[in-house]
Amino acid sequence: MSRVKVPVLDLIAQHEPIRDDITEAVVRVIRSGQYVLGPEVQAFEREAAAFLGCRHSVGVASGTDALSLLLMAIGIKPGDEVITSPFTFFATAEVIVLFGATPVFVDIDTVTCNMDATKIADRISDRTKAILPIHLYGQSADMEPILDIAAERRIAVICDAAQAFGASRNGTPVCALGDGSAISFYPTKNLSCCGDGGLVGTNRDEIAENVRLLRQHGARERYKHNMLGLNSRLDEIQAAVLRVKLRHLEAWNERRRSYAAIYDDRLAGVVDLPHTAPGNTHIYHQYTIRTPQRDGLRQFLAERGIATGIHYPVPVYLQPALAHLGLREGAFPEAERAGREVLSLPIAPELPREKIEMVAESVREYFETGT
Could you tell me the CATH number of the domain that includes residue 59? Predict the structure, then answer.
């Protein structure tokens, strides 16, 4: 395999223009002597809430912890059911199972790969406690029918927005939709830490208060624990880094959209392109095409030094860790078909335009030469 010429992302290149600002932020924290839940976390929570259009944002240790804390905050318990998508990163289903609840899957829409909202009502039972949609690849799930169903049945809606910081639905930031949203700042995300971190966004005061308690062992004050919780806090250094990066996020997301437009133009009629649903503002955390010739195309690109990703090759219910659910191949055919066809192309904003053009031309070459 040739040397990588076009990586999926290049964090060194991303950080270079803001290196001095990041260095200053990190040094500021070190000199302050305040490393846990100090002024940087408090400032970032305010700034993030304003950006997301939420009344509250609560910094936590990871996106997975954000999901866990939201489930705890709404009172998920053994025997409950949570409706979600089978086509997502494993953590979404994992946290449901860890709390003794059961993930109840709904197959995906064939165009957006988000959960098909028209199929949710048939999956609701007396044990349904919540609906957990995923805003996959950087665009909103079909939230209006989801919220309507939840309001009618009086069940919670908590969203996996790990890939959607900055996305919106009909002008409303996605993290302001539903009862709460879980966000990840893993280094691959559009807004990322120099390490790990996460956030819960919510407009509900009681959920915000519960998450603040739960993230530090259920304690409202030192040595007084009101509930059983976790140790899950966004640390000061990561918050300081995120504050620097947040100032650039809109420009970075806009560059992703411009790169998506290049792909759309060059690859129309060549592969199945990502579809932005009406009313959605896409932030293109991933630019994910679909083709039955995915594996051959991926190998062809790799031989030319172009890195790609598969998000996700195996639906979560077919993972060995969830074998106890008793679901077999064929249970959700659209999720399984997507797993065989999806391929994410490089779209990171730090990549130069000519590399995006190189990727597009290489994809065309594969199909035009019949390789």
Answer: 3.40.640.10
